[in-house]
Design a protein that fits this description.
Elements (H helix, E strand, L loop, with lengths): L1 H22 L25 E7 L6 E9 L2 H6 L11 E12 L11 E6 L5 E8 L12 E9 L2 H5 L7 E3 L7
Parallel strand pairs: 2-3
Antiparallel strand pairs: 1-2, 1-7, 3-6, 4-5, 4-6
């Protein structure tokens, strides 16, 4: 009798445990994260990198940056979205197929940026300073550019980067 009662008790505990597990909230899938998306959900493959030099008027010297190169449609669309930080001498260089007026926005961009619009001749044609994180406003300088460099907000004012500054960079490999 005792072993039969123990067996019933054991099966009852097992049934209760299964019932509790069945009532537990299921784990969220990646699709269900839409309301609470974070940077961790948006890993991007590594992009090519290059050293970029930018003429600053305050320092009277060439400023060197280590930048990622966004040259594919996917990388250009993604840009610096979901990044939690950007170091002072880092950034992203966007390379477009042709020179035209470029428009940017800050959707899903978590850090403030300066946007440096650069002609095909590698001269700064204009700057958007302190672009507001997460803003959906369209940003442009109203002039044609072939390249756009994004750096941490405040960099251009600090270094004296302005329209007319010269920019150069080393060649990069298509794959990092």
């Amino acid at each position: 009798m005792r072993s039969e009662a123990q067996g019933l008790f054991g099966r009852g505990l097992l049934a209760a445990a299964i019932g509790l597990l069945a009532c537990r909230e299921p784990a969220k899938s990646a699709v269900e994260h839409e309301g609470d998306i974070t940077a961790e959900h948006h890993k991007m493959p590594a992009l090519p990198r290059t050293r970029l030099s930018l003429e600053g008027s305050f320092s009277r010297q060439t400023e060197i940056f280590e930048v990622e190169v966004a040259h594919t449609p996917e990388a250009i669309t993604r840009g610096l979205m979901w990044r939690k930080s950007l170091k002072p001498r880092e950034g992203m260089l966007f390379v477009f197929e042709r020179e035209k007026e470029q428009f940017f926005w800050m959707k899903n961009t978590l850090v403030g940026l300066d946007m440096v619009f650069i002609s095909a001749e590698q001269v700064v044609v204009g700057i958007v300073e302190h672009a507001t994180p997460l803003s959906l406003s369209s940003l442009s300088v109203g002039l044609p550019s072939r390249y756009v460099l994004e750096v941490a907000a405040g960099t251009c004012a600090k270094l004296g980067i302005r329209a007319g500054s010269k920019v150069a960079w080393e060649a990069w490999n298509e794959t990092p």
